[in-house]
Amino acid sequence: MNAPLIAPVAAHHRADWERLYAGYATFYKVSQTAEMRDTVWNWLMDTDHEVNGLVAENQDGRAIGLAHYRPFARPLSASIGGFLDDLFVAPEARGGRVADALIEAVAAEGRRRGWSVIRWITADDNYRGRGVYDRLATRTMWITYDKKLP
Q1: Residue 136 in contact with residue 100, Cβ under 8 Å?
Q2: CA diameter of the chain
Q3: Secondary structure tally for the chain: helices H, strands E
Q4: For the stretch 64-86, what's the b/e string if a residue is b when 16 or more beta carbons lie within 10 angstroms of its beta carbon?
Q5: How far apart are alpha carbons 105 and 108 in whole angstroms?
Q6: Domain ranges (residues) in the chain
Q7: What is the DSSP letter of 72?
Q8: Which pLDDT tens digit goes with each residue over 7-54?
Q9: What pTM, to 2 d.p., does this model score?
Q10: How many CB atoms lie within 10 A of CB 15?
């Protein structure tokens, strides 16, 4: 597989993005509705919203991977970092370094913006993804918690 073209998500990516994001939700066993995807899509299309998106396109121009990212404040270091919220590669495109290209594109954007770090989380049992992440970044000692709010 040739290196994918990484591009900002655009209106013409909607159908591919929808397929990929639904696949991402399925992978993490998250119930996601069309309305939820509409909300995220609208965030991505709103240049004033903090969430940004990239897609990886194959040689035919079809999106085969996605990444969503946003800035976050790091008070302890008095800096701004980038948070990689979502990363997903279509099953048929895995093994072709698509995730590498998407992560590097987010890192390049972070360097451009002067961010101090790109951070992301993944499931403990996402062994294939963790193999990629272990090659590209440093695993931290931090454990995350969620407190549900009504």
Answers
A1: yes
A2: 47
A3: 4, 5
A4: bbbbbbebeeeeeeeeebbbbeb
A5: 5
A6: 5-136
A7: E
A8: 999 999 999 999 999 999 999 999 999 999 999 999 999 999 999 999
A9: 0.94
A10: 10
